[in-house]
Amino acid sequence: DDELQTDGNRSGHFRNGELGLSPTNEDVIRIIAAQLAEIGDQLDKEIQGRVVNDLVQHFLNENLSTEEITLHMSRVVRELIRSIPSDMEQEKAMLVLAMVLTKKIVNTVPSLLHRVFNTTLNYMNQQLHNYIVEMVSAQPA
Fold first, then answer.
1. 139: part of which helix (H) or strand (E)?
2. Does the keyword Membrane apply (predicted)?
3. Model confidence, pTM
4. Which of 46, 95, 133, 141 is the most buried (most CB within 10 A)?
5. Over its length of 141 residues, how does the chain's per-residue pLDDT go in tens digits?
6. Residues 49/19, Cβ–Cβ less than 8 Å
7. How many C-alpha atoms does 58 have within 13 Å on its Cβ side?
8. How far apart are CA 71 and CA 43, in angstroms?
9. Would you tell me how many other CB atoms lie within 10 Å of the CB of residue 58?
10. What string of DSSP letters covers 3-29?
11. Could you give the residue ranges of the DSSP H alpha helices within 1-112?
């Protein structure tokens, strides 16, 4: 039911033939998505292949629970955050890193899409929920 949109394109669910987001919220979300995509493009070059391959191995290990993989993803994001310029908000960098890692993992092993997507949502809900709500509400309408 959830959608992963990282390119600023329209996302949402249709109810009675209408998109489930108000036009104002949709515009705000599009602006935020475009900003995050730009940051993601910059950070994408910083992430080494071994980091992605390590995460892929964790996702492929069916003995690991979603919680265990989420914890591992959180550790990886915290390690990568050290290489991010200090002028960027830490929460924003964490959010973008989680999305970039998700993209890289799914590009490496497309069959992991469902598991990676659910884990990323779980991570974002646990670690970044308040930040995301604040970011959306802080945008001018």
1. none
2. yes
3. 0.69
4. 95
5. 444 555 444 444 444 444 454 556 777 778 877 877 787 777 777 788 888 999 999 999 999 998 999 999 999 999 888 877 667 788 888 888 999 999 999 999 999 999 999 999 999 998 888 888 887 777 655
6. no
7. 23
8. 21
9. 16
10. ----SS-----EETTEESS-HHHHHHH
11. 23-44, 49-60, 66-81, 90-108
Closest by Cα among 56, 101, 67, 54 to 81? 101
Please calculate the CA angle 53-86-41 and round it to the nearest 5 degrees: 45
Query: 20 forms bridges with which residues in the sheet?
Result: none
Q: Where in the chain are the domains?
A: 23-137
| 45: amino acid identity, one letter | K
